[in-house]
Design goal:
Layout: E1 3-10, H1 15-28, E2 32-39, E3 47-55, E4 68-73, H2 76-82, E5 86-95, H3 102-105, H4 115-122, E6 124-128, H5 130-137, H6 143-152, H7 159-169, H8 175-187
Parallel strand pairs: 1-4, 4-5, 5-6
Antiparallel strand pairs: 1-3, 2-3
Helix pairs in contact: 1-6, 1-7, 2-4, 5-6, 5-8, 6-8, 7-8
Length: 188
C-alpha cells in the first residue's frame, strides 16, 4: 500500500529539509520513495509544495486532489489551499502560524479569517503551535522538524529511526536544536 504525504508551506520555512528527513527515513525502512518539489515564488515567501509517496513500488511522485493520506502544513493559508488534496479519512497537521502573502503585504487583499475553524469543520485536523515549540527547542526555524515529529508519531516507523535520520541529515551545528524540536513535536 502506498502512502501519500503532501508538505506545504512558504519559502524559507524548511519544507525541503522536512521532505528530505521524511524521504530518507522511509528509504531506510526499505520503502520505494518518490519525491517531487514544486516551488512557487519560494524565494519571496511564495508557496512551496512537496509530494512524498512511498510504498513497495511507487511509479510517480504526483498526488492528485483527494489522494493525500497526510498533509503537513507549515502555515494556515497553505493548509487551506491544500485542503482539496486530502483524501476522505486523511489527516492534516497544521502549524497555526500565519505568514502574510504578498497581496496581503501590499494591501491588495486581507488574510482570510478563521481558517482554523474552516479546517476543523471539514477535516481531521491537528493544530500545532509549532513556532512556540521551535522557539522552546532553541530556534524559531525548527518549525519544520517540530511538525515532522508530530507526523512521525502517527506512522509505524520507530522513534529511533527518525532520530537516526535527523542525525544523518541535519548539519552538526543545528543538530541539538533539531533533535529537541523533533522530540517536542513527537511528544505533543
Amino acid at each position: 500500500m502506498t502512502k501519500k504525504i503532501m508538505i506545504v508551506g512558504v519559502g524559507g520555512q524548511g519544507t525541503l529539509l522536512a521532505s528530505r528527513i521524511l524521504g530518507n527515513t522511509v528509504i531506510n525502512e526499505g520503502y520505494d520513495v518518490k519525491v517531487s518539489e514544486v516551488h512557487g515564488m519560494s524565494q519571496r515567501g511564495g508557496s512551496v509544495v512537496t509530494y512524498v509517496k512511498y510504498g513497495d513500488a511507487v511509479y510517480s511522485p504526483i498526488i492528485d486532489r483527494g489522494e493525500a493520506d497526510i498533509i503537513l502544513a507549515f502555515e494556515m493559508l497553505e493548509a487551506y489551499r491544500a485542503m482539496p488534496y486530502l483524501k476522505k479519512g486523511g489527516k492534516i497537521i497544521v502549524n497555526t502560524q500565519e505568514i502574510d502573502p504578498m497581496p496581503v503585504i501590499t494591501g491588495a487583499m486581507k488574510y482570510p479569517e478563521n481558517i482554523d475553524k474552516k479546517l476543523q469543520d471539514k477535516l481531521d485536523v491537528t493544530l500545532v503551535d509549532a513556532l512556540s515549540l521551535a522557539e522552546e527547542a532553541g530556534n524559531f526555524k525548527a518549525v519544520n522538524v517540530v511538525l515532522i515529529g508530530v507526523m512521525a508519531k502517527s506512522t509505524d516507523i520507530p522513534y529511533e529511526k527518525w532520530v537516526e535520520t535527523i542525525k544523518n541529515t541535519v548539519p552538526p551545528k543545528f543538530l541539538d536544536v533539531n533533535l529537541k524540536a523533533f522530540d517536542l513535536g513527537y511528544k505533543l
